[in-house]
## 1
Amino acid sequence: MIGRALGRRLSALLRRPLSLYYDPRYRLPLSGLEGATGMEPRRADFAAWWLAASGAVAQRRIRAPSRISIDDLARVHTPRLLESLGQPAVLAGMFGADPEELAADELLDSMRLACGGTLDAARETLRTREPALNLLGGFHHAGPDAAGGFCPIDDVAVAVAAVRAEGFTGRVVVLDLDAHPPDGLAACLAGDPKAFVGSLSGSDWGPVPGADETVLPEGCGDDAYLNALDRLLDRAPRPALAFVIAGGDVLAGDKMGRLGLTLRGVRRRDLTVARWLDGRPQVWLPGGGYSRDAWRVLAGTGTALALRSLRPVPPGYDPLSARFSRIAAELTPGELGDSGELTAEDVEEALGLRPTRQRLLLGFYTAGGMELALHRYGTLQQLARLGYRGFRVEFDQGGAGERVRLLGEADGLDGLHVLVEAILEKRPCAGVPMLYIHWLSLRNPRARFSERRPRLPGQEVPGLGMARETATMLMRMAVRLGLSGMVFRPSHFHLAYSARHSFAFVDPDRQGRFEAMVRDLADLPLLEATQLVAEGRVLMNGQPYAWEADEMAYWLSESPTDPGEVEREKLRVHFTVAPPR
Ligand SMILES: [Zn+2]
């Protein structure tokens, strides 16, 4: 076992040169994406943070992509397609979002930056012959005149056309290892006699003219996949420029892909291709990925290229928590809390010239300090991309605890809106002081519920898609205040389900019943499961069961729960769904 700091230094000594193209705007400004598609919107962020933190990529090799020009796009796409992208309804349809809510300019910006990143990477690798990895791209469903499946424009085809226009005449090979066929890309490259498109996919969409396509059986595992890959590489011509779409949706359990690879199998895929391409100009792209672990595939692609290593990203590693803990270390108590200096408002208050304000949250944070932290963590920037601005933090007393609210103005709506509201208290739980979260609500008043984005029990308006950031910031608060963790009471099954990776019920029997419920309702979509539980239609050992909103805790120290007790209760109870009344 070597420490992380030593590991990082070793990696820096051993690593091969790799250029990484990344921009924080690679995170798509779509608040409902995660719930609707299983896509991890932070995939590029997580991969970039890991590759830098692990020492696989030097900070100076992380490049900001340029935004692709309309002239570059027009070499591949028809004026009709390019004009349609200016219409929010078209983009919204493509990404399963509501046109009224969609920040269309911001979304198109993400796409144009990704496309520019692929072209920048192609120019760079042709110059240096070293691999380049762009952390967003591989939009292989966009054809010359038709966008499709999260792909409004075709970054690979646009990059090929641009380097051709700059005089590159060599053979281009695209290895499309995403789980879906390269229909749009093959159509874009149809007129290029020196382009080869080879593909392994897990979905049969009929013939893909112009592509060497192998459709693998559903659930195809590592060995069968790697065999098919070897055969594809035997058939493929040697490239003067290669593009590899190293899809993350080949992973078992992906919401949209049908293959069954393990993380280790995907890494072996990337290592095989990296060795085959050794010394040749090559651009790597992430393609799709609709699972919680899709970012690990992308981080693994970078690790394969830079370190030629099979070593996995540590299974328990949470990139958001690691990142926020580094940022928190740079925030000083003076920036977050009371500086002790008297302001004009303090003097007026003391003289009774203005009403007394609540100045500190939990006896420490000032409103200004909270705002600064939200800025440093990148939260306000993400909210701005969702159409909010003019942010303000306010404190007051809120029933069981202290209330903190983040307010903001919204594009297209009048007035100030509550975006985040929490009621917090320092309070003991299981004998130790904890950050008690009595209430937490993330609200996106610009969004509407729809068939694609249904209302969850207890929701007033759709959420912001930022629950993980919020929970991680609250955890940083617990650390800062010297507490042992945080606690909340999930009012519905879906809240406990979403928190289950970090939180557990304090009472081991309750945790056992919850784990049994997760086990027994696994075949139902989460929305349906939480609705059935809320309606009382889920039975425990054949008897009516009412949801128990007991305390769930995240422990900064070791959890006091006995796993044996949890297991006993989990084996004792079984949940079934009662037929409709
Ligand atoms: Zn795909």
## 2
Amino acid sequence: MRNAIRRNRFTLSIIAGVVSCLTTTSTVIGQGGGPLPYRPGIDVTDYAITLDLPERGTSIAGRAVLTVRRWGAVDTLALDLVALKVDSVLVDEKPVTFARTDSLVRIPIGHVVGDSFSVTVRYAGEPKDGLIIRTDSSGRWTAFGDNWPNRARNWIPSIDHPSDKATVTWTVRAPSVRRVVANGELMEETPLAGPPGSIPRTLTRWRESRPISPYLMVIAAAPLVYYDLGRDGCGVGEFSSCVRQSVYVFPESRDFLPGPFSHAAEMVRLFSELIAPFPYEKLAHLESSTRYGGMENAGAIFYADAPFRRRTMQPGVIAHETAHQWFGDAVTEREWSHVWLSEGFATYFEALWVERFAGDSAFRDEMRRIREEIFKAPEVASRPVIDTLQTDLMALLNTNSYQKGGWTLHMLRSLVGDSAFFRGLRSYYLANRHSTALTDDLRRAVEASSGRPLGWFFDQWLRRPGFAEVTTSWRYEASQRRVIATVAQGGRFGAYRFPLTVSITDAAGKERRATIDVPAAANTTIVVPVQLDAAPRGVAFDPDVRVLAAFQAR
Ligand SMILES: [Zn+2]
């Protein structure tokens, strides 16, 4: 998602509201040193969720049928569900006696024979969060799911953790004036028979046939109008050769369209070409009540409504959320501390869209701007990108996960070259698509594609705080007709190892380049391997903006 206020030529997204909900989770450390699975021995493979939405008020009624697989000795299933009243629980369609706390439903499963069974939970009440129900100043009732990071549990009985992905079917009964949109493919829209004089109601069913994490499982129910992005919305899809794209907005936003969405097709085409076919049944973009600037729900991206109303929405946020469909949604970080695998990728792929459609110098400007943000962020100086000690999940939405994560990909690309970089990303994606991954999965994929050990690179940029602080100088050695460069690294974050491009403007005004390997040392003197005829006019370091270093010339 995007939740920062960013202003530049390509992107502008406005925070939807003050982020006030601080969520904490505790991490249990296993004997092997890594965190234990969130619910060991249990895997939900499918959710079939039926919701009845009211004409007014915030009370909903739900029935969730979970298909559960058990792979360990577990005799109680603990489902996350906050506050709502549970009326009944069935296991394999037989009633069981369950226990309720404010945040869990504890269900006995010790008697179940076999390793697969169904659990049906009937529940009702007013969700405190997760499903945002509002009535606007014109009296319009709206509901939008907004689950990141673990707010699905406010309205969906679930194993509410990104590691447990499942397919989902949504069946929603609501007044017919509202349009219901959700993940996946539209299966059914049927008017319901009601008593004479009653408000007409419609049943809408959507089916997501790819497993997704609960934080991405959403519905929208609001008086939205549909805008088809048409044949231009065709790219390359996993389901068909054509990705159907559309926008759903409130009627007063209709004349803003297609606006920034006129770039939606080229974004899907670019990311499909760089990585793999688009992973979901369709891609809808919605004006919504999300608290974020944009939220990458699988196949149904929800955006803040203010940039629609003000007509200020820019394509950058669309590129970011669209990139998440591959990274974050289809390949999901298994542990929250690896959230850079989602946000760092979305940040960098937004920049790759700039590179493709605005050119190299715009891309360099974008990477320079992002680098400046990294230098200024206190969390970059104090904590690593993979921050296993941070238990406040909202605090992980920071410059480390986004900007420094994105910059790490940028440096990985420079280190191994475009071909090995994108081959590595593709094999990482294809090996973990519709599943989950950790940073080592990415490391191994790029090690295989480049044939180089990269443990030092990932440790250096992701497992320790800070960035390189480099003081450069050079002199021309007339006897050898070469430039001698010296690189001194600051003590604040220690020394880093990186390739450094040196651009020499020779006496004739011609640019000559060489890339030297700078070791992780306090002081390095390197002969730049460029043969000159005379003293150069000038020497520049890192002309392509490829090192996460604050450079100073001595
Ligand atoms: Zn994001």
## 3
Amino acid sequence: MTATAPREEQLWSRCAGCATLLYRKRLRRNLDVCPECGVHSRLGAPDRLRQLVDPDSFRPLPDDPADVDPIGFVDVVPYPHRLTAARTGTGLAEAVLCGTATLGGHPAALAVMDFRFLGGSLGCAVGELITRAAERALEERVPLILVTASGGARMQEGVLSLMQMATVSQAVAALREAGLLTVSVLTDPTYGGVAASFATNTDVVVAESGARMGFAGPRVIRQVTGRALPDGFQTADFLLRHGQVDMVVPRRALRGRLVALLAAGRARRPRPIGAAAPATSPPVPRQPTPHATATAVDPPAEVADPWATVRLARHPGRPTTLDYLESAFDGFVELHGDRLGGDCPAVVGGLARLDGRPLMVIGHQKGHTTAELVARNFGMASPAGHRKALRLMRLAARLGLPVVTLVDTPGADPGVGAEEQGQAAAIAENILALTVLPTPVVAVITGEGGSGGALALAVADRVLMLQHAVYSVISPEGCAAILWPDRSAAPQAARALRLTAPDLHRLGVVDEIVPEPADAAHADPDAAATALRDAVRANLSPLLDLPPATLVRRRRQRFRRFGAARAGNRAGAR
Ligand SMILES: [Zn+2]
């Protein structure tokens, strides 16, 4: 890092948010976040790097920008004069600083943009430098982190600057193909050609608190539409709500989040599950419980009434996906959004670890209180939820991470909006994608496995089911309403539907029953979590060494066996 602030550090600065006059050193200590109102002021690339990477670990790439003025651009001053002024003003050679560094000991290549340099605009030199940073990541097989701050493409270089969107995107695609993690960190502001390319086509998109991102700027949109913009338009929280970013992270937590992502993205040559965990993530010792075995239980001698099981499966105290992520897995980093317009609260997912090994966990999320249930739409996924799950499954496959799904839904969201947004197609796409996903998938029915909405997360190499969970083509109430005089016949319907774990185990739909504590999972959530973890570990482990082609072939065979045709010899069926 050669660049330093060219001007003498001023003693005081005025907060752009609350206008408080702040002692500059105090502001620096607080990472340039106003201690009064929390506004994150803009950071130059050198300061940003200092905050993010391990001390003294940054090595700039050797490349220098070539001097270009491809279209001889002159406005009130010639473009070369503007470039010179920007260099003098910032001490930087261009609007991006690229190099390699470690974060929490994890190596990465970084490209950090600087808004002070001609508005962080993307020109031919910036595009080339970021591309070289991506190529370095590929060479060294390390993740790439892009910190964006830009008004968009550099007008002074005409359409050639537009081409840089494709150049850099191509480099991001090469990392994708190589299974290397790419992360963009959106800082304020990120607009135009940068927003529409490498700021958003990375694997994980992190927005710093207060960042705004969009294709068109608010002024342009107001002019074109003639309408007032909604509150918080294009802010980080708006982006999160609309499924555009994975997370909003305050500056003080940014480095830690990136370290966690890099730790998870390093999975290419995995240790087998069950091998000694690395020093950084010791397995939490847990009390052994009599139920914590991973072997299938025999169906209980006295079979409970299936209706009683339905009620247990729906018990509000039953552990949810987020509970299991807290108790059965380590280091959960939640990823949000379908990148198309929504972030469905009924589906949660992200990177987590089991015995120190990174994996992707995706599940339906209900809740324990009425308010939680309402906020999570009772675990009924919208099309956006299914698309988020799909995005995370594909990301897992690219990174070589196994997928664990936790199924607990009464069914997919049956609303008008869901229909308008293509609920059927969204479910269909997930089912199809899972049949060909080239990475191990273990599904656990933890509560209610309701019809197609459940199957959208349950086409797996191994399908496990908690002892008191249910899995059914239709709810007992729904079935009763159709086939009995009325819904009060739900208990009879529950008996007829064969929806309990022992029934489904006998039918081969479920490979293994995960035993629950004596009075069911809600009575002892910790024991339930231990049993779930042990079962996932035992079922995942043998899958890890299988070549993807074998895995996919067996998975398809597994689901093929439920067919009921009676043909002669089917030579091609294996
Ligand atoms: Zn302030």
